[in-house]
């Protein structure tokens, strides 16, 4: 049945694209986890926050206008200008760096040396906090995001596959662009970590805090750097997902999509995040297509990734590429 | 002056090993019990019960359950919402299949069903640790919610996909359905709270609890000194899920009456209960109560202050609530990682020396 095969191929291609986006979110987790041992649950909310800020700045919204109006009885909404997308992205990046600084300075500096699980819970608190602040700043209505990324069906792939299979694949231009940007981002990050001074310092901190400190690496600076990088990755992810499905609360749930990717790939491995993302993206789409929708009533995408990761972990507890866990008493 | 242990001598083993060895604590405990059982039921009305007392009591049970797993045994779980859903649906199926059996039995049985499911999802904890386990429990959360949404047998093929509690009585008094009375539902839940707290308190200070704590503090070392990690972890999962199942059953049958699983038992619920035990205090039964009370009261107080006094729109207050809860979590973790329970302990220490602290 060639038609079914063509469907399956299309699903696989779409799964790969989705997987790249999962990997992008997972990458933010890996960066912070490697450098500071913090499992940053707030990564998804950071993406939401970045997307909200970007949409708000482009639109010329007054931050906290809703709150100001309620408290002071005024009626302000917009500054009345539109910021060009590129400038807005730069401004958002400044906000994310300020956020990274604040988070490091006000929260995690006071939690150095605490157990990892306490740090994890602090990031859950941070996620709630950021979500509330984001909503207060920019309002909770669904915003559309347009920074000039192409959208819509890719005509070339549609035609080519139509000639080859007699059935045109539906692949969104946005997904293709997103994959390319994600790939570039990953290459860039790897280069940064390998060949720059700061990147090496970052890896040194990831390897051993004490040793890094003793050769003169500033932990504070590196942690702010890492949080800023994670903010940058969150911004990119926020732009992609925001363009795809609008800037709204559900954007923060992509963090939940990234978690099984991390488990599968290992918390400490950048290639792991990518391979894991691809496996999960393809796996859940194919499972939904082959088994979920026909036999189980659909919507299996919510849990399939977790189950896959869970079963996988039972056999390999540190994930695909994770460092072997050695425990000593 | 009041809070003293001097002159409080134990003359038998039973006295020495009782739950509240200090006389003042004991009398305070009796006093609280007296207020809860004999005073509050006469004073409350529907509003108080539905907005404060029922959620507090039910969340307290869930928090005790989760505290056993996270606070005492050190296995972080984000699947609380899913396990509460198991309790709710088990209770629903039992209520509709066996209408003549007492609600007491139904609720306890739903606890047992949830315990079984909990053990099943606890099995990976033997291989997976720390964050990996926390994320793995999300599998339970998403899978269970999906299951109850998609398999019609669980909601008796009802058209809306919801489950709603039929009218059931306990000793001839309505406790579920539309015609309930405030004091009856309150007392029914209170009974389970007392039962849970009593069992949890005595388990955690006995050999089982010590094994859990050994596993929490360092599982390899615990294994070497002879704690069986399989049994310790799985009993923690079972007992924790048992309580969470009870709370889920009560949440559905007594408190809400009708439930749509994705909304009520979603991942937000897991985090809410987790926050309760963080704010209240990990590894403390009192902390479970304190955290539940705090997070049940907070939205009510914020709503009264924000909406009724200041006249702000409700959505701003809802967002502020997120900011405040998130901020409080962080503040608590920085200032007092052991939560309200630790503050209480410190206060007691101070009281003991007061008014001559030197």
From TrEMBL, chain A:
Keyword Calcium: no
Superkingdom of this protein's organism: Bacteria
Membrane topology, record value: Multi-pass membrane protein
Gene Ontology molecular function terms on file: transmembrane transporter activity
Biological process terms in GO annotation: amino acid transport
Protein's cellular compartments: Cell membrane
One Pfam family, short name: BPD_transp_2
Sorted UniProt keywords: Amino-acid transport, Cell membrane, Membrane, Transmembrane, Transmembrane helix, Transport
Main location: membrane
Membrane-crossing segments per the record: 12-33, 45-64, 84-103, 110-130, 176-196, 217-241, 261-282, 289-315
UniProt-listed InterPro entries: ABC_transp_permease, BCAA_transport_permease
Cellular compartments per GO CC: plasma membrane
Family assignment from sequence similarity: Belongs to the binding-protein-dependent transport system permease family. LivHM subfamily.
Protein name: Amino acid/amide ABC transporter membrane protein 1, HAAT family
UniProtKB/TrEMBL annotation, chain B:
Membrane topology category: Multi-pass membrane protein
Cell compartments where the protein resides: Cell membrane
GO MF, any single term: branched-chain amino acid transmembrane transporter activity
Pfam families: BPD_transp_2
Transmembrane segments: 27-44, 50-69, 101-123, 130-148, 183-200, 236-259, 271-296, 316-335
One GO term describing the cellular component: plasma membrane
Domain of life (superkingdom): Bacteria
Keyword terms, alphabetized: Cell membrane, Membrane, Transmembrane, Transmembrane helix
PANTHER family documented for this protein: ABC TRANSPORTER PERMEASE PROTEIN, HIGH-AFFINITY BRANCHED-CHAIN AMINO ACID TRANSPORT SYSTEM PERMEASE
Name of the featured protein: Amino acid/amide ABC transporter membrane protein 2, HAAT family
